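Supplementary Text 2. Reproducibility record for the structural model of the 342-residue chain.

All settings were left at their defaults, and a single model was retained for analysis rather than an ensemble. We include the record here because the model underlies the residue-level annotations in Supplementary Table 4.
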Amino acid sequence: MSTQLLFGFIDLPLLFALIIAMGISLYIILDGFDLGVGILFLWDRKPHEQDQMMASVAPFWDGNETWLVLGGGAFYGVFPKAAYIIFPALYIPIMLMLFALIFRGVAFEFRFKSETSRPLWNWSFCLGSSLAAFAQGAMLGAFIQGFTVQDGAFAGGYMDWLTPFTVFTGLALMAGYSLLGATWLMMKAEGSLQEKAFAVGKPLMLALGACIGTVSLWTPLMDAHIAERWFALPGFFALLPVPMITISLGILLWRSITHKNEVKPFLLTIALFLMSYLGLGLSMWPYVVPRSMTFWDASSPYDSQLFILVGVAILLPVILAYTAYTFYVFRGKSNTHEHYGP
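Retained model, structure tokens:
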């Protein structure tokens, strides 16, 4: 009996779409807050508070990027036809993101070891975090606006990704990560740094709210299919809970910052990200390459997917357990006097 007959009841492309979506969402949340702290790093110029900002993300930042590797590797193995289109289309922003993450990691390590050149590494850490966040947002915008495809291959130019819309989505994700970083500091920091995080929280929330609203209106104007899905009946009423829940989360987040709750703002910001992510998924479903290729069209042979599934089934619980254990061990406030490395 073939493996396809044995496991034929499992819709592997759909299963992997959900697994990859989960991996990407975990990356956005987990690496998002430490990228956000990096974006905000030069907002506070006091050395001891910068040390506290670094200490708050030191145990997490490199492990958080594991989800990027898992998601990218699984995507390439399971949806090679889509990767053949998307990777060339996004080659430049992908490379910008990777170089920025490497540069940021180097700055992270060198800052704790240096003395005279520490201001240089402060700038490097902030610049690397900002560029990585912008590149990720620009890639998201490029995915939403779609790619030029002919005969199953990317037929556009390498700069097609750079448009006013992708620049805006890049800046929007920077605002979102900044809010996530600020709410992380509300939870992990103490004293004057925590007060500064609360002070900057509301302006960042207003900026993110404006960005979400603008993208929500701009997207259906670019794509008639998305406009029909969200505004035509009966879809309008079926999808109405998504924006209503998002608005409700925004109100709760505003109140939690006003009352200076330490944990709620971070959790509510995560929920806000997840609802935005859900809205994007509902807009693009079931296309892995917008309006060109569905998950099922782009999938690899069944046996290949099954082989990858075995690996994911082994690795995913390990990564989840490691991540949970890390957050458990380093729970509570970050120590102002902690330093990364020996």
